[in-house]
């Protein structure tokens, strides 16, 4: 079984009409382009004829990409439609084709279906409580590790008072309750409380109740996460897998506020970048740079969100 999922792979703004865009995702060189009707195409960049890069070719009026070497044209399904050397009217052999991936645009991201071809695809995953109308500011961050390590870092509570002791983890509250976890069909919500160490011992059997209508974290399979700050403000991360050792993180700071919104979003994003940099510096030291459910790390009971993530990733055979 390998059904798999829609993965957020690019920011929609990156793909402009008539400008083929070459990106490495899932360890493959993928050529993206936008057609006249605004739909997006994703093709394997390597020409099946003699291996030239289709990204260096030209987009035709018919929304096809013509290879820069011998101008064989490929349509949105990756099928060759014409081989100039044979005469444009000549029939094209069926095996002259490149792999294509289903792609779609939603919520300001480009989503690529990485998995089995299906007759009907499910809708792209998204946070139920984050409306597309909420304005945001976005930045990108390249991390030299597998996307699993990036995601887990955002589900890791125990690092907050340590790694972020001068920012969001101020106050030396190093003792952590068992987190509350609430699964839904998209992913899960989680939250915990932090306390100063006054000699108490955490009871790992006790799961204090938390209120998810306020500050909490949400993870949505397979690669998006939000920090729900309050109704009108969120930090969102999309972890786009470049290959086994690289991830491009798309970070957004959403804030809806009547006055000075763009300034608030500017500083909100700047602060989020500072936090992410603190995370980056320690995650880069983790070995191996990819995580798995069965990998021999000795996790703490409070790391139940990470365990849930690892288990779910294995069950769903995600990238
Ligand atoms: S290598 Fe692409 S058409 Fe020849
Ligand atoms: Fe962090």
From TrEMBL:
Domain of life (superkingdom): Bacteria
UniProt xrefs under SUPFAM superfamilies: Bet v1-like, ISP domain
InterPro entries: Cholesterol_7-desaturase (IPR050584), Rieske_2Fe-2S (IPR017941), Rieske_2Fe-2S_sf (IPR036922), VanA_C_cat (IPR044043)
One example GO MF annotation: dioxygenase activity
Keyword Mitochondrion: no
Keywords annotated in UniProt: 2Fe-2S, Dioxygenase, Iron, Iron-sulfur, Metal-binding, Oxidoreductase
Pfam families, A to Z: Rieske, VanA_C
Presence of the UniProt keyword Metal-binding in the record: yes
Span of domain Rieske: 6-112
Record's protein name: Aromatic ring-hydroxylating dioxygenase subunit alpha
Organism: Entomospira culicis
